[in-house]
Amino acid sequence: MKTYGLRDIIGPIMVGPSSSHTAGALRIASTARTLFGEQPERVVLTLYGSFAATGSGHGTDKALVAGILGLETDDPQVAQSFALAEEAGVAVDIVWDASTDVAHPNTVDIRCEGAGRTLEMRGVSIGGGAAVIRRINGIDVDITGEHTSVVVHQHDARGVLAHIASVLAANDINIANANLHRTAKRGDAYTVMETDSDVSATVRDELLDHPSIINARVVHASAAGDGEEVPVPDDAEAVFARWDYASGEELLALCEREGVTIAQAFRAREEALCAKQGVVPSIDAYLDRVLEVMGQAATEPLDNPQPSVGGLIGGEAAKLRASLEGADGQQRLVDPLAARAAQYALATLETNGRMGVIVATPTAGSAGVLPGVLLALRDERGFTHDELREGILTAAGLGYLIARNASVSGAEGGCQAEVGSAAAMAAAAAVALAGGTPDRCLAAGANVMMSLLGLVCDPVGGLVEVPCQKRNATAASVALVSAQIALAGVENLISFDEAVAVMDEVGRGLPPELRETALGGIAKAPSACRYCAGC
């Protein structure tokens, strides 16, 4: 099971509109480029499942090409990746295969060609921008990106594994996990060695000094901390075990045992996780960057409205602001806190929809809820920058549990897994900022999940625009109401852990038409079908 950290839940910082369909897709293609060893001359991208059904509207094709070109998830040029590929002389073929059954709805096959070589690779995007590589040149593998991986293509012969292990040992690299994947005895094989530290380029040359090794590549771990390596303490595993937790019940016990808040517990866990991985955590610097991007995404569309890529939204936040300011004699029906939260949430989804830079919290499709609540609390209740940091850590503390024990992917669990999770995180953050105890934070999260249980993912035209934008805004209000109920001491019959388990069961029971395929729900309403030309 993947060990989720801060940047997995509050992040990635990325170009919209979808964490799983854009950021996750880009990371898959980036890994293909790494395994191929250079920029290919030609690439064939075959998209399946939800990738095929909604990938065009989500910018999945653009993100895949961007990854092949070596762009990062937060590079504004992702939207122009096809033009960049043409300039770079990279031929791109896209195959949209919505009929072939695949094990995961967000699946892509990538074929890279160039310099007389080919690479065929299958990857899946598992939500929140994370990706797993499942197949290389017809051989099943499992590369999660949690650790740096040394991927060795070899003939299955005696002594190869010993050579690989000895090279890593000689370079003081500890092996966290090792797997041999082969077609047949004495046939083609891949060895995947996951390591506890980064691997230098010279290691590859040493690995190739064996007649049975065909090639070797290093796939660096997904960003943890700031990437700067430090020695791993001898007690790293013990310290991480002290601060790790697998359920809400364990989290409450941890907070009571250590006398800490959820934010403090998650901060200590993140520090321990980074120490175990041998990197500098830089938590506050990252949170400062998160708040900066959140602020820009939530305010820029207010003064500079622009249409989204799909053309379905653009200017809604500015209209709401004008209404709340009494323009044209319009009455304000909601209080200033909820109104401002809705305004910021709408604006963030506008930024997301035009492929601007946002923070996935925990996904891009739900990126407006947490900043909407936090920035509104700052403006209307006077919470400071440092207090907002603690709110984000509280949100991450609950979001980690949802990602670990259920899903934050709309393709797997519907919109309840995205907007529902985001609102649960925001509700917990609001309670914490108001001085609520850890058990009240979990109660607020459970309130949200029970209120939004069964919310389907039905993007019109496969775009993260309608009904996503308004759901973000209304979910911000649900988060605030749920937080107030929890602060009032109203008890829940259903615990946070039970609510997460039920959400997971309900989400996986939803038909495919209601899980991000744009084949059901609002996406099949007559007006939506007219927009999609009878899709």
From TrEMBL:
Organism: Adlercreutzia caecimuris B7
Chain segments annotated as coiled-coil in the UniProt record: none
Catalytic activity: L-serine = pyruvate + NH4(+)
InterPro entries documented for this protein: ACT-like_dom_sf, ACT_dom, ASB_dom_sf, Fe-S_L-Ser, Fe-S_L-Ser_bsu, Ser_deHydtase-like_asu, Ser_deHydtase_asu, Ser_deHydtase_bsu
Pfam family for this entry, one: SDH_alpha
One MF term in the entry's GO annotations: 4 iron, 4 sulfur cluster binding
CDD domains per UniProt: ACT_3PGDH-like (cd04879)
Record keywords, A-Z: 4Fe-4S, Gluconeogenesis, Iron, Iron-sulfur, Lyase, Metal-binding
Gene3D superfamilies hit by this protein: 3.30.70.260, D-3-phosphoglycerate dehydrogenase, domain 3
GO BP terms, alphabetized: gluconeogenesis
EC number: 4.3.1.17
Similarity comment text for this entry: Belongs to the iron-sulfur dependent L-serine dehydratase family.
Protein name: L-serine dehydratase
Cofactor(s) annotated in UniProt: [4Fe-4S] cluster
Pathway: Carbohydrate biosynthesis; gluconeogenesis
Lineage: Bacteria, Bacillati, Actinomycetota, Coriobacteriia, Eggerthellales
Domain of life, per lineage: Bacteria
Domain called ACT: residue spans: 149-221
